[in-house]
Amino acid sequence: MNIPGYKDAVSGSLYNIGNTLRLRRALEKKNINLAFAGGSVTKGWDGSKYLEKNYTDFVTDFLKGEYPDKKIRISNLSTESANSFIGLSITDKVIEEADPDIVFIEYAVNNECGHDHIVSYESLVERMLALPSAPAVVLVFLINKSLYTSQGYMKIIGSHYGLLSVSVADSLKKMLDDGFDWSVYSDDVIHPNTWGHRFIADCVINALKEAGNKTDDTEYVLPDAIYSLDYADYHTYGTDDSHVKKKGFEDISCPEYGEFFNNGVRYTGTNDASVRFEGEFKTLFAAYVHDKTDRFSDADVMIDGEKKAVLQGRSIYGWGNVVLKNVFSFETRGKHSVELKVRDKKKDFILIEFGVS
Question: What is the CATH number assigned to the segment(s) 235-356?
Answer without folding.
Answer: 2.60.120.260
